[in-house]
């Protein structure tokens, strides 16, 4: 297995560097292609744009529209320039049209479509989607690039916290809860697991789900040349499972956490919270998730 095509959605407010460097690190490891997609208009539909202008005379409308377009161009130029600088600093070149290449490649695309729609569409023909850590966990996950990737693309998602980049050859922790989603997370992570210096399976033994045990997962991974350590942890009273998992990952010195996402119904997780919501809000290390 390998990772050849990586999608990175960008908005003007994002901190580009951690996400970009992580994506390029993966592309360099697997000789892949990173595709940066930037949403130019900030997600405003035409009706929303008209509403934002308020009640203005038609004589001023053209001026306001021109000013809005110039603002979009200015923001787009600033984001492109910043990304150019990051890419060049990594020793690669940002291009507009991808071409056949034996080495890693980085390309740039602009779109006026809502980025969540682009992620759902383009993500389906990507091996991996890399996103920044959401700034809020209170909105509907589907309305964020990460949620659109998880629920709309069928592809694994790598979430990068601010000021962190992904390490491919160090310590990986698998958060195992026996769910279908966790299984998808593990199979999606096989290219990383095969590169890692050590792999540890952490299972918080809640008994909430049926499925393969942590030891059965370890046996499966051994067929892929991976020899993980298994650690089963008893719940601690009313302490959140997500909090326990992050503590275990930190104690293991993990550089990457692999897990399933939203193994309960999304409505239940939104109403009551859940492991995924806690991890997304509080993780200090990169997290590879699959739904």
Radius of gyration: 21 Å
Spatial arrangement of strands, main beta sheet: 3-4-2-1-5-6-11-10-7-8-9
- Biggest sheet, in brief? 11 strands, mixed
Please give the alpha-carbon distance between the first and last residues: 19 Å
CATH architecture of the largest domain: 3-Layer(aba) Sandwich
State the secondary-structure class: alpha/beta
Task: Supply the number of helical segments.
Answer: 10
Query: What is the beta-strand fraction?
Result: 15-25%
Supply the CATH superfamily name of the largest domain: HUPs
Which spans of ≥5 residues are poorly predicted at pLDDT below 50?
none
Per CATH, the class of the largest domain reads Alpha Beta
Number of domains: 2
Which range best describes the helical content: under 10%, 10-25%, 25-40%, 40-55%, 55-70% or over 70%? 40-55%
Looking at CATH, which topology of the largest domain would you report? Rossmann fold
Question: How would the global form be characterised?
Answer: globular
Which whole number gives the mean pLDDT?
A: 86
